TrEMBL record:
<feature type="domain" description="Response regulatory">
    <location>
        <begin position="159"/>
        <end position="275"/>
    </location>
</feature>
<dbReference type="InterPro" id="IPR050595">
    <property type="entry name" value="Bact_response_regulator"/>
</dbReference>
<feature type="modified residue" description="4-aspartylphosphate">
    <location>
        <position position="208"/>
    </location>
</feature>
<dbReference type="InterPro" id="IPR001789">
    <property type="entry name" value="Sig_transdc_resp-reg_receiver"/>
</dbReference>
<feature type="compositionally biased region" description="Basic and acidic residues">
    <location>
        <begin position="121"/>
        <end position="133"/>
    </location>
</feature>
<feature type="modified residue" description="4-aspartylphosphate">
    <location>
        <position position="54"/>
    </location>
</feature>
<keyword id="KW-0597">Phosphoprotein</keyword>
<feature type="region of interest" description="Disordered">
    <location>
        <begin position="121"/>
        <end position="152"/>
    </location>
</feature>
<dbReference type="Pfam" id="PF00072">
    <property type="entry name" value="Response_reg"/>
</dbReference>
<dbReference type="GO" id="GO:0000160">
    <property type="term" value="P:phosphorelay signal transduction system"/>
</dbReference>
<protein>
    <submittedName>
        <fullName>Response regulator receiver domain protein (CheY-like)</fullName>
    </submittedName>
</protein>
<feature type="domain" description="Response regulatory">
    <location>
        <begin position="5"/>
        <end position="119"/>
    </location>
</feature>
<dbReference type="InterPro" id="IPR011006">
    <property type="entry name" value="CheY-like_superfamily"/>
</dbReference>
Length: 281
């Protein structure tokens, strides 16, 4: 049986790579386009079984893509990926032919898969089965993969604090860390992040730079300026990729700097393990 083909039209590389990885893992063939014009051409040329379509795109936005495909008489099912989730935007997309929608700030990879399989008529085949198999894999892998550390938080599994306001990326990293046997804590902004550093004394901090309230640079400065907290390693994970931003973070005490669009979630987890082993072993 041929693999079902899904086209993702999305210009935010972090979200694009995460959706692509999840769908490929589940056995789909995935095509990608990073602007509306390219995406529109690929729908016509590749005839995918389903399209995941962002609304805010370069060259041609998602509504324009929907309008052109409707004029062409295309019957390819489309799931719209909305930044805002505003009812007016979603209603407009559905009236233009979209079959379903996702809101970026509220979904995780499992939600993407569930929507895709619902639209493709495979709803019975899996979200529950996939989740149960992942849980089984997680339990089996936990004793082998969990890093045991003697640190500020006491002996036991490594404790990771993720300070990240992007729910999609945060949920994905947390899920992967838990599967590897780590203990995780989450903060959505800089002030909450600082509070949790003091309360939880994590073994490592994964820190975004662009945050509500206190930004990541200020969080890093305060952590490294506190004698009780300064030894906790910090990995910066950010959309900012300018050399001056990297230099500022590294000179401020960060162990490493990772640009979100340049690394997969698995590579982020691998870096966390490297830094932990370097610090505690």
């Amino acid at each position: 049986m041929a693999m079902l083909k899904i086209l993702i039209i999305e210009d935010e590389l972090v979200h694009l790579n995460v959706m692509k990885a999840k769908l490929e893992y589940e056995g789909y063939s995935v095509l990608v386009a990073t602007d509306g014009e390219a995406g529109y051409r690929m729908v016509k040329d590749e005839n995918p079984d389903l399209v995941l379509l962002d609304i805010i795109l370069p060259k041609m936005n998602g509504f324009e893509v929907l309008e052109r495909l409707k004029k062409d008489g295309s019957t390819v099912p489309i799931i719209v990926v909305s930044n805002s989730g505003q009812p007016v935007e979603v209603d407009r997309a559905m009236k233009m032919g979209a079959r379903d929608y996702l809101v970026k700030a509220e979904f995780n990879p499992a939600d993407v898969l569930e929507k895709v399989e619902k639209v493709l008529g495979k709803a019975d085949s899996s979200p529950k089965n996939h989740k149960s198999s992942e849980t089984t894999q997680s339990k089996a892998a936990e004793p082998e993969d969990a890093l045991i550390v003697k640190s500020s938080g006491g002996g036991g599994k490594a404790r990771i604090l993720i300070v990240e306001d992007d729910k999609f990326l945060r949920d994905l990293i947390v899920q992967k860390l838990k599967r590897e046997g780590f203990l995780t804590f989450e903060a959505l902004d800089g002030e909450e992040g600082l509070k949790m550093v003091e309360e939880k004394l994590p073994d490592l901090i994964l820190l975004d730079l662009i945050l509500p309230g206190l930004d990541g640079f200020e969080v890093l400065r305060r952590v490294k300026g506190d004698k009780q907290l300064s030894q906790i390693p910090v990995i910066v994970l950010s959309n900012l990729g300018q050399k001056e931003d990297m230099d500022r973070a590294l000179s401020g005490g960060a162990e490493d700097f990772m640009v979100k669009a340049h690394f997969t979630p698995n590579e982020i987890i691998a870096k966390i393990k490297v830094v932990l082993k370097k610090k505690y072993f």
